[in-house]
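1st attempt posting a full record on here, be nice pls
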Amino acid sequence: MTEAKKRDYYEVLGVSRDADPKAIKDAFRNLAMKYHPDRNKEAGAESRFKEIAEAYAVLSDAKKRAEYDARGFPGVSDFTRDDLFGGIDFDDLFGGLNFDSPFQGFFHRKPAGPSRGANIEMKHYITLARVVQGGDEKLALRRPVNCSSCHGTGVAGGAQPLPCEACKGTGHVTSSRHKDQVLIRQINICTACHGRGSLITNPCKQCHGSGSVEQEENLTIHIPRGIEEGMVLRIAGKGMASIDPKGVAGDLFVAIRTLSDARFERDGADLIHRKTIALTDAVLGVDLQVPTLEKNVNVSISPGTQPAAVLRLKGLGLPAFGGGHTGDLYLHIGVHIPEKITEQERELYQRLRKLAVSASR
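the predicted structure (as tokens):
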């Protein structure tokens, strides 16, 4: 972002110039939760997050803030990214969620070195009670890991495999031919090493030369109170092993989903309960027992309640992620129209219709 296009840091966070440190921290946290790329995959979210993180890095530091207040952007132009973000505890700001820090992967190139294993994505379902209380959850992870016997080389004793002579270690072979004065080159996977670029003449007995074995592991993940539907938790180093024996494993990304509940539908921090009442109860009114997360409560339905009416029970929903407020419980009222009625009921309805016609004249 060029200096000419930068927005005022106070404007970025939506705070006044005399905002105290707590107000600045709260504003950053709310915006960061909304735009962090681990949660928001919409176009522009990453750029917005960078802008928010940079504004917070300056305004949360008394010295940097004083320089910015006195001289504007030139006052903080000499700071490197490490100067800006090095002293910020983002784990604390994000309430223990294992998000990548904003300067890891966003503001710096990844260092050169052994290749990194692929990430693993999985879903984990929790109850509404866990959303309310937070706490630890157990999950079983089954994944291939480097063979401990050969250290991932696939060769008995951990020796290095021999380079494939057929492809010179590239894993593919190139063939050329001419057709109508046109040179055609075709690249195929090497059939001798099956694309590995190396040959294993003495395979490891434990992994049969693959270099990896299946391993099941029991993990514990912490669910923050009020966790949002679809929020992703990152567990570092629990992804796929690197194809390079010296490389590091990828990460495990756990998408949190809420188990269906016969009583409620979830809408963010709000809950929805649907109740169908008899036509006579809609006309005359009725008292209902409505379930909440803790106990049943009595709700009075007023006479003349219309189909699709919605009643709001304030504060009886889920805690919002990050604290601050509690959602509501919305009671959606349906009215049952009987499909079959007795002869006596038919006579009563006909009398009601006559009364309604007379009243309208």
